[in-house]
Amino acid sequence: MYELSRSNRATVAYSFDDVAIAPQRRTRSDSEVDLSWRIDAVTFDLPIVAAPMDSVMSPETAIEMSRLGGLGVLNLEGLWTRYEDPTEQYAQLTEDVDQVTITRRMQQIYAEPVKEELMVARLQQLRAAGVPVAASLSPARTQEYAHVIEKAGLDFFVIRGTTVSAEHVGGGDDVLNLKDFIYRFDTPVLVGGVATYRAALHLMRAGAAGVLVGFGGGATHTTASVLGIEVPMASAVSDVAEARRDYLEESGGRYVHIIADGAVGRSGDIAKAIACGADAVMVGSPLARAAEAPGKGWHWGSEAWHSSLPRGERTYFEQVGTFEEVVVGPSRVPDGTMNLAGGLRKSMAMTGYTDIKSFQRIELILHR
To answer: What is the reported pLDDT for 305?
Structure first.
């Protein structure tokens, strides 16, 4: 703890840029590395989850992400559940205009109500493709659409917000009781974001199958400047991993998965996230670089269209290749934004680790 004044103290926290993975005494061949990740009854070839953001996830790209070995999550409050065919809306949102203009345009476009029949249709489309069905809602809308979610037969349900707690104080009768909701819901629930030991422990005790660490959005939101809230991810993931260890003992062996959701823009960040204790990562901005991304290189999060307090910036990323090339390669750029899985695999091989669980125990170096 550091004293800011006589009455205020603060802790030191570190980002992924502040840490590095330490070389070990052995190396391995890439072919020996197993990147598979299992949560509930489903095993994935890659520990990569596509963020439920309209700029990167359509029903088609969610299906493609699952085909590549990861998990695609569809936003049930996005364009695909507000419009039968959102082609025109995407065209308006991908024009090269200033931030004030695009923010107003987003607020107008996303003012269209969510339609339950479109929610059902999009989920059926994923189911028909034979891939794991995963979808997300914000905490504020989860109770409203709980009846749709319960009937949808999801494989995974994601409750994702800027910051999520197990207990929300105040409000009306529609306030989400997370513990009651999870325990009446057969589907594994992934919840976030959180950034501290205590907040994560509360979500684990509420029954979450996985906890999202971070506030998501990466470069596309300005939560730090608007709300003063920020997450140095290396410290946050490590803190939540400690909560998981304590909860594992407290619960008699119930393992809760940790998914790093924020500041994961390159393959090196994925490796650092897992080295800090994450089981998987949730990515958005790297996928915005794919040719199939519906945002055509433009990237935005749900924070950007808030009706009264928008705090997201639409960001442009140069498109570098196909969805497949971004996720599993081959890469044509040297900066870690393509072949995300290959970068993680190489990092593990060069440090002598063959699986995700053992790689979580690697030593880290702190930049001073």
So the answer is: 86
